[in-house]
Amino acid sequence: MMKPFAVLALTFVLSSFTAQALDDQPTLMTTRGSLLVDQDFSQPPKPFDGISTGFASGFSGWRWNAVPRGGKWAVEDGVFTGRETPEVKHPATASYGFLYKNVIIQCEVRMNNVPLDGRKTRSLSVRTVDAKDYVCSIHMNETGFRISKDDNDHGGPDKSVPLGAVKTPLKLDEWHTVVFEILGDEMVGTVDGQSLTGSHPLIGTDKHSLMFVMGVEGSVKNLKVWEAQPNPAWVQNKAKLTAAASSAVKP
């Protein structure tokens, strides 16, 4: 049985975030080490090679779902787009398989304004995956975003437990910048300069893929992943986030 998770859910607006070059977006908890993944989608992704490992993916390359399970993926002009098939209400998923533990995942994502085809809302998730199941994720919809830990096959009672949420409109057909920092048992999820952080022992597991989940249709571009190294400023950054969150709480 896993220990109860510790939660720290905070919001912090980085006013200079959108002014930064995409390769130099601010990080709060980590600093960038070696570049592990660089996908500009100028060419269609190659399917994964190696041996499929556990849940969702393989050692290297891409794997995505297909009809009849419920998803179509295509690349055009540097954009990788996944769409549910109308007859199967299953999000389109694509995963990139590689071995990692502490990383910075950075990309641009877009929720496309297409007919809902029976769904209540559009959504998009960036998830990390180990050999058993999803580990932790950033989930976006039109009303904002949340970070969560996921432990369906790890001995926990819930498949997805929110670690924090930001209620802010996320427009359709517009690109949103995601920076996903993972170091040890802590994570920081940042969308368009607003950040949430949380901790749980599961987050520190050895992971073998990252996954994009698109419902009903979503796109990703400019995907990069770096090794994550400790940021000496995290103690101060975390304190500022804590203070900002405390001051935002209404009595």
CATH class: Mainly Beta
Secondary-structure element pattern, one letter each: EEEEEEEEEEEEEEEH
Task: Please identify, by name, the CATH architecture.
Answer: Sandwich
The main pleated sheet reads as:
8 strands, antiparallel
Shape: globular
CATH superfamily, by name, is: Exo-inulinase, domain 1
Give the uncertain stretches in residue-range form: 1-19
Radius of gyration of CA atoms, rounded to a whole number: 17 Å
* Share in helix: under 10%
**Structural classification:** mainly beta
How many domains make up the 3D coordinates?
1
Protein name: 3-keto-disaccharide hydrolase domain-containing protein
Organism: Prosthecobacter fusiformis
Signal peptide: 1-21
Keywords: Signal
SSE layout and pairing:
Layout: E1 30-39, E2 61-64, E3 72-76, E4 79-83, E5 92-100, E6 103-111, E7 123-129, E8 134-141, E9 144-150, E10 160-167, E11 176-183, E12 186-191, E13 194-199, E14 207-215, E15 217-230, H1 234-248
Antiparallel strand pairs: 1-15, 2-5, 3-4, 4-15, 5-14, 6-11, 6-15, 7-8, 7-14, 8-9, 9-10, 11-12, 12-13
List keywords for this structure.
7-stranded antiparallel beta sheet, Jelly Rolls, 8-stranded antiparallel beta sheet, mainly beta, 251 residues
Account of the 3D structure:
This is 3-keto-disaccharide hydrolase domain-containing protein. Residues 1-21 form the signal peptide. Keywords: Signal. The strands form two sheets. Strands 1, 3, 4, 6, 11, 12, 13 and 15 form an eight-stranded antiparallel beta sheet that branches. Strands 2-5-14-7-8-9-10 form a seven-stranded antiparallel beta sheet, with no helix packed on it. The chain has one helix and 15 strands; from the N terminus they run βββββββββββββββα. The longest helix has 15 residues, at 234-248. The protein has one domain (17-245): Jelly Rolls. The relative contact order is 0.28. It has 251 residues and is mainly beta. The chain has one helix at residues 234-248, and strands at residues 30-39, 61-64, 72-76, 79-83, 92-100, 103-111, 123-129, 134-141, 144-150, 160-167, 176-183, 186-191, 194-199, 207-215, 217-230. The protein is globular and about 50 Å long.
